[in-house]
Design goal:
This protein has 395 residues and is mainly α. The chain folds into three domains: 2-43, Ubiquitin-like (UB roll); 54-147, Receptor-associated Protein (Up-down Bundle), CATH 1.20.81.30; 151-395, Receptor-associated Protein. 77% of the residues lie in helices and 6% in strands. The protein has 17 helices and three strands. It has helices at 23-32, 46-53, 59-71, 76-86, 90-104, 109-114, 122-132, 137-194, 200-214, 216-234, 237-249, 251-274, 279-286, 292-306, 311-318, 323-335, 338-394, and strands at 2-9, 12-19, 36-42. The protein has a three-stranded antiparallel β-sheet, with helices on one face. Helix 8 crosses helix 9 (200-214) and helix 12 (251-274) runs antiparallel to helix 17 (338-394). The radius of gyration is 31 Å and the shape is extended.
């Protein structure tokens, strides 16, 4: 591993880099060259830092291709070598070459991949580490691919359910903006020439249209500033945390978000338990998948399990289960197949989420279309109301 050593030699304070197995060995190398060492810490190599700033490592695709090569008869080292040779993206190829370098030094694959946390998350490394003891790396890869596919399926359902409402809102907003910024001001000029009394709401609508026509450029700049500020704020972790807390405070939505979180929690923990990871270690590894409020409950459950309480009791006491999940956990404790039972709990939660999304979209989309239609219809009616009044007076 590469270590960065900060040291002093004479009156010169410098930073050095040493390749060593441990921190003490790196300090020893610096001291042997006459430096007075102040600190030493591991340093990520430049090419790995470049990967962190660049594209995302395609972990699922890598796992699928590696599994196919292993099932074809190649060993793990040969499979990773083949994937590194065919990879045309420099940053990803360098990650694979780095893994190969550590494997050639005799390190296990989990340890080699652990040195690249930007490419291989702790959950993936833990699944491989558990399989190294039994030699079932292919099964571990297959399990992780299935896990990611199920998580991605839920995410795609949520995204697909939100696409149509977003398109409706954008289309309705653009039509309304066109009416207010182009059509209404022209009607306003016509009514000014004609004169006469107009209904109050029509006068109000025409004044808004005239204001948009006169200050359209300024309003567009302000809108761009508002959107840019909003996007910037969304990049701030504190702002995202507060938005999540606000969403969780909404009764119906908060319960749905809790179910989605619990589904991923149980699926991740179940995958680790099936792979042979101890339950307390597995809880620690999947804690990062939970929001802060559920993370505190998970820590409470881990303390109870550490004290000898059954998993079902700990989950019930900490509020990390539902009546159905609690019964399934008890069955898993009796059968000794807790990992598989947790995956079934996650599947049950996923099906419940899918039914709720389907029900919500069937209810929300017609309501949204009705609201947009009413807004556009109101604008059109208010525009033509003075014409109707004029026609009535002529008759």
């Amino acid at each position: 591993m590469l270590y960065e050593v900060r040291a002093l030699r004479g009156r010169e304070f410098i930073s050095l880099q040493f390749e060593a197995a441990t921190e003490q060995m790196a300090i020893g190398q610096a001291q042997s060259q006459g430096y007075a060492v102040f600190s030493a810490q591991p340093r990520t190599s430049n090419w790995l830092a470049g990967f962190n700033r660049g594209e995302r490592f395609p972990l699922v695709l890598f796992s699928q291709e590696l599994l196919a090569l292993i099932e074809a008869g190649l060993n793990l080292l040969e499979g990773i070598e083949a994937l590194a040779e065919k990879e045309h993206r420099p940053a990803i190829r360098q990650v694979l070459q780095g893994v190969l370098r550590f494997l050639s030094e005799g390190l296990p694959v989990s340890v080699a991949m652990e040195k690249f946390p930007a490419a291989f998350p702790p959950l993936y490394v833990a699944a491989l580490r558990a399989s190294e003891k039994t030699g079932g790396i292919a099964e571990s890869l297959r399990r992780y691919i299935t896990y990611q596919g199920q998580v991605e399926q839920v995410r795609k359902k949520i995204i697909s359910a939100s696409i149509y409402p977003v398109i409706l809102i954008l289309a309705g907003g653009l039509v309304t903006l066109f009416l207010m910024g182009y059509v209404v001001p022209r009607f306003a000029h016509i009514y000014e020439e004609v004169g006469g009394e107009m209904p109050f709401l029509s006068r109000l609508l025409l004044s808004w249209g005239t204001f948009l026509e006169q200050h359209g450029g300024f309003l567009l700049v302000m809108l761009a500033v508002f959107v840019g500020t909003g996007l910037y704020l969304l990049t701030r972790q504190s702002v995202r945390r507060r938005l999540i807390e606000w969403a969780w405070s909404i009764p119906a939505l908060g319960e749905r978000l809790r179910i989605i979180q619990l589904s991923r929690f149980y699926r991740s923990l179940g995958m680790l338990l099936i792979g042979g990871v101890p339950v307390l270690k597995g809880l620690d590894m999947v804690s990062g998948l939970l929001v802060p409020s559920l993370r505190l409950k998970m820590q409470s459950a881990a303390e109870l399990i550490g004290q000898g309480q059954p998993i079902s009791v700990a989950m019930e006491y900490s509020g990390l289960s539902s009546p159905i999940a609690l019964r399934m956990l008890r069955v898993g404790e009796q059968s000794g197949r807790m990992g598989e039972m947790m995956e079934r709990i996650a599947s049950f939660y996923d099906e419940e989420t899918a039914r709720w999304i389907e029900w919500f979209t069937k209810l929300f989309e017609p309501l949204l279309m009705m609201v947009i239609g009413l807004v556009i219809g109101l604008v059109v009616v208010l525009l033509y109301m003075p014409i109707f009044d004029l026609a009535g007076s002529i008759q």
